[in-house]
Amino acid sequence: MGTGHGRPGAEAPGAMRFSRTRTARENLALDRRPPDHARMDQSLQDRFAPQNACFGCGPANKDGLRIKSFVQGDEVVCTWQPQTMHEAFPGVLNGGIVGALLDCHCNWTAAWHLMQAGGLATPPCTVTAEYTIKMRRPTPTNAPVLLRAKVVESQPDRARIAGTLEAGGRVTATCDGLFVAVKEGHPAFHRW
């Protein structure tokens, strides 16, 4: 049976092809799967919220930190390069910037997890309900820093995330945060 795209049996570009051996339930699950599920060559922010203007993670905020979070196995990672304008004093990252980096990165980890757990095509809009940052040692600004985050526990509308900030192979700060998916009517509901 042809589809009108050149040769008999050719699929339309981007068309989902269902196998006769799958159950209807399996086919529905495949149809609800996020696009390019296995491919993550774009950051979560660029892929799902390119117009977001958040100071920490918004791709559209030219004056922001513009972090780029990538899924890597069971964690989400980000490499970010500090600049002198981000320093508290020469050579050391400002504590508020440390907090913003971990807050946004952990928030995106929660959004990604809730999207996957709920079988959604896009992440729910999540906000920070609470987070605690512990400064372990000064974070130098002379090289890129590495953010790591993973889910500690979750419910259908929230996730507790543990995150770290590393510089030079050493953890310089940790984060424990609770991030909640908001409902319609909340000011952040349509932010991405």
Task: Give me the number of helical elements.
Answer: 3
Order of helices and strands: HHEEEEHEEEE
- CATH topology of the domain at 69-181, what is it called? Thiol Ester Dehydrase, Chain A
Give the DSSP E fraction (strand runs of 2 or more residues). 25-35%
Sheet/helix structural class: alpha+beta
Determine Rg (CA atoms, Å): 20 Å
* Average pLDDT number: 84
How much helical structure, as a percent, in the residues? Answer: 10-25%
Low-pLDDT windows of residues: 1-39
Cα(first) to Cα(last) distance is 40 Å
Described by the principal axes of the CA atoms, the overall outline is globular
CATH architectural group of the domain at 69-181: Roll
Note down, in words, how this protein is organized.
It is a single chain. By secondary structure, the chain is an alpha+beta fold. It has a domain at 69-181: Hotdog Thioesterase (Thiol Ester Dehydrase, Chain A). It is 20% helix and 30% strand. The protein contains 3 helices and 8 strands; from the N terminus they run H-H-E-E-E-E-H-E-E-E-E. The chain has helices spanning 24-32, 44-48, 95-118, and strands spanning 70-72, 75-80, 87-89, 92-93, 126-135, 145-155, 158-167, 170-181. The strands form 2 sheets. The protein has a 6-stranded antiparallel sheet with strand order 1-2-6-7-8-5, covered by helices on one side. The chain has a two-stranded antiparallel sheet with strand order 3-4. A hairpin with a 2-residue loop joins strand 1 (70-72) and strand 2 (75-80). It is globular, with a radius of gyration of 20 Å. Residues 1-39 have low confidence and may be disordered.
